[in-house]
Amino acid sequence: MKDTYTYSIGENLYINLTNRCTNRCTFCVRNGKETYEGYALWLKGEEPTAAQIESEIGDPRNYSEIVFCGFGEPTERLSDMLEICDYVHAHGGRTRLNTNGHGSLLAGRNIAPDLKGKMDGVNVSLNAPRRADYEKICRPQIEGAYEGMLAFARDCREAGLNVWFSVVDCIGEENVRLCREIADGVGIPLRVRPMIE
Ligand code: SF4
User: Fold this and answer.
1) Any idea which architecture 6-193 has in CATH?
2) 97 CA distance to ligand 1 centroid (A)?
3) What is the rounded CA–CA span in Å between residue 128 and residue 138?
4) What spacing in Å lies between the alpha carbon of 22 and ligand 1's midpoint?
5) Which residues of 112-144 are buried (b: 16+ CB within 10 A; e: fewer)?
6) Less crowded by CB within 10 Å, the N or C end of the chain?
7) Best residue for ligand 1 mutational test, from 15, 26, 28, 135 (most atoms within 8 Å of Cβ)
8) What is the value of pTM for the model shown?
9) Domain extents for the chain?
10) Looking at residue 158, what is its pLDDT?
C-alpha cells in the first residue's frame, strides 16, 4: 500500500505529516494497526514535504477543515506545518491542529504565538487530571510532559488562539469530572470524545 500523506474522513481532510510522537498512548488508534479507515498511515518511506501535502490538498475549500492529525505529533514538523497553514489560508480554507501539547517542549520555547493566524483551532489532548495518571495513560517519552502540555494550552489561550482540551471517555467519569475542573480552572473548554476502537 502507498504511504498516506493526506486522508479524507467526513467533510475534513487530515494531514499525516509524521509518525514521530512524544507519547505512547495506551488508547492510540495506531497501536497494533497498519492502517486507519483503510489508509496506510505508518509511513514506510520519507515524511512528506510541505509541497507534496499542498499539492494533495489542492483546493482546501473542498473541505470543512484541514486537520493536522495522523499517526504522529504534527508539531514535530512545526515549520512545514505552518507553511501548509499559509497555503490553506491563501486558498480560502480553514485549519485545525490536533496535538498532544508537547510542541513547546520539543522546540525548547513557547510556540503558541507562532500558531496565531495559522491555526483556526487547536485541540490539546488533556487525557488525565494528574501527572501520575497521564504517565500511565500516555506514557510520555519527553521530560515534563504533563506540565508542558498544560502550559502549552494556557499559552495558546494567552496568544488568543481558539483552543480547547479533549479527553477520551475511556478514562472514566470521575477522571472526566476532574479534567473538567482543570479546564474550567484555566478558562479553556473541554470536549469529551469517544474512544476510537
Ligand atoms: S499523542 Fe496522539 S499520536 Fe501520539 S501516541 Fe498519543 S494518541 Fe497516538
Assistant:
1) Alpha-Beta Barrel (3.20)
2) 13
3) 9
4) 8
5) bebbeebbbebbbbbbbbeeebbeebbebeeee
6) C
7) 28
8) 0.96
9) 6-193
10) 98
